[in-house]
Each structure stands twice: as structure tokens, then as C-alpha cells.
Amino acid sequence: MAVPCHHLHSNLGLRLRPGTSVIQSPLLTASPRTSNSIRWPTVRCGTNPEQQEALSKIVEDRVEELLQKDENKELLDKLNKASERVELAREELANIQRQEMEALRMRDYVNQLETRASQIAECQKEVLEARKILEEAEASLDCNADALQKEERLESVKAALISGLVGTVAAAPIYLSQLDVSPQLLLQLGISFATCALFGVTFRYAVRRDLDNIQLKTGTAAAFAFVKGLATLGATSPLELNSESLLSHALDAAFFVSQDLLVFVFAAVTLDFCFKTRVISPFPIKLLD
Question: What is the largest CA-CA distance in the chain?
Fold first, then answer.
């Protein structure tokens, strides 16, 4: 490659005229110690190819001569060793940079793990708080359930008492017209009170929230009336296989069922009035109140 002559002058100490060029060798090196001991010739450069070739040969010979000297060999060895040390240093630097990058990545990973650990701790804390709230709510529900059951029993007792009293009052004129013996009258009134009290509890649980269902109310009263009336018929004279006995028992059954139906209807009307005026709470209390 053709280069200006002042470059050769700086590298080899050749005194060249400006405007000329030489062929530069890639192996051309010189040291301060050799530049003073070597006598550099003055070479005139030109653009002629023969001159350039001759100049290139001179330069190569001079370079070979410099390289053959022991002191230059030592310098070259030192240069090679320095180059090796530079390469080793570059490799070590690259390793250090890779280790730093790995350390940064590990630090980021550790930070992420710490963040996740803190999030998990917060979630566990929230779970414990939620569990505590749930336990408190369950305990409160249990207390409320116990209190509600007590209220339900109390309302059922009220319904039984009111129904028993009304039924007994309604049945008293009927039994007074039929019985003259005081113990028998007391027995029938006691039976009426018990059956009407049981009717009151059953009526409350049967009607529940459907307070305007007349069929349900009258059906409950009729069911109790039929059961009690037929039970009363069973306590009378035995049935005989003749028309007179069959007709007599049929009339007695209709009479007993009718009078018991009248008693239970009075009790049902009274209970319905108490439900609507909230003297007695319908079942269930929580859904209605």
C-alpha cells in the first residue's frame, strides 16, 4: 500500500522529499534504542513502479536486519508476552463482567423471592384473620341459632296455650249440655284442652308464612276434627250389622266430627288473628319479623 513519505520518516528515520510515496511493510517497527545506532540512508521516492519496488526491497531488508538483532528479539518477545497478558486481562475482565451480570441477575431473583415471600406472608396473615372472623361468625350464628330456637319454642308454647284455652271455652257449652257428672265433664274439657293445644302447635308449623291460604287453615282444622270425632265414636256402643246400627253410628260420627270441627275452627280463627296482629309470631320467626 502506498503511503506518504513522512510516515516512513517517523518510523525508520528516512529522509524523503515531500510529495513522494513508498511501500509500507506491515512488519516495520523500530525502537528508540535501535534508531540511534543504525545509520539511515536518504532515499528519494518517486512514482515510478521500479523505484517503488526497489524502495520496498530496501525497507524489507532493513526490517529483516532489525528483526535479526538480539535486542529487537527481546523487545518482540516482551511485546508478545505483553500482548498475551493483555489478552488474559481482557479474558479476566470479560469473566468479571459475566460474574457481575450473574450477580445482578441473582440479586434480582433474590429480590423477587423476597417480594413473593412478603406477599405470601401477607396472604397468610389475611387468611388467619379471615379464619378468625369466620370462627367468630360461626360462634355468633350458633348463639343466634340457640336464641332463635328458644324463641320458636316460646312462640309454640304461646300458640298451644291460646289454642287450648279457646278450644276449651268453645267446647264447654257442648259438654255441659251432654254431661251432668262433674268428673266426666272435667275429663272431656281436659281432653279438649290437650287436643286444641296440640292443634295450636301443629297449626303454627303447618300454616307457616302462608297466612292467606284458607284451604290450608280449614284443612288442618278439619283433619283434627275428623280424627277426634272418629275417636269419640269408637268409644260409644259397638257397631251391629243392621241398618239401624249403621245409621245410628253414621249420625253419631257426623255429630262428633261437626262439634269438634266447630271447636277447632274457633281455635284456628283465634290463632290466625294472633298471627296477623303479631301476638304470636308465625313460623319461622326470622323470615317474618
Answer: 171
φ and ψ at 287, to 5 degrees?
-75, -25
Map grid coordinates 259397638 to a residue: 238
Angle at 282 between CA 277 and CA 285, to 5 degrees: 115
- Residue 7, Cβ neighbours under 10 Å: how many? 15
Q: Which residue has the cell 521516492?
A: 45
Distance CA 243, CA 253 (A): 15
**What is the pTM (predicted TM-score) of this model?**
0.52
Question: Which tens digits make up the pLDDT trace of 174-230?
Answer: 888 887 778 888 888 999 999 999 999 999 999 988 888 899 999 999 999 999 988
CB 206 within 8 A of CB 220: yes
**CA separation for the pair 157, 259 (Å, rounded):** 25
